[in-house]
Amino acid sequence: MSERLKRAQDEIQRLPTSKTGGRGVLVGELIQKIREQFDIALKTLDADGPDSEIRSALSERKTSLNSYEISYNPGNPNPQDVHILQVKVQDAVSTLGSKLKMMDFS
Description:
mainly alpha
């Protein structure tokens, strides 16, 4: 699970924050890869269980990704969407890592 989120995080860091900043980057493909990682992670997290907090955060980030895609297509990407994605996915990775460590000590 955390590996999927780390992959998504790597892809998010490649998203351009301006239309001219994406040279050589196929933004549509990046968005699709990120979306796939989010979808796989969301399928494995229980909406009502101990991972519900992480699942909720990822659902919100998927909304941020959609917002970025909508703003990028007409040529006016919102850099704030990328920054929010980066921070919140890092938070999810950290939270998941902490939970896994707690389970190891139990």
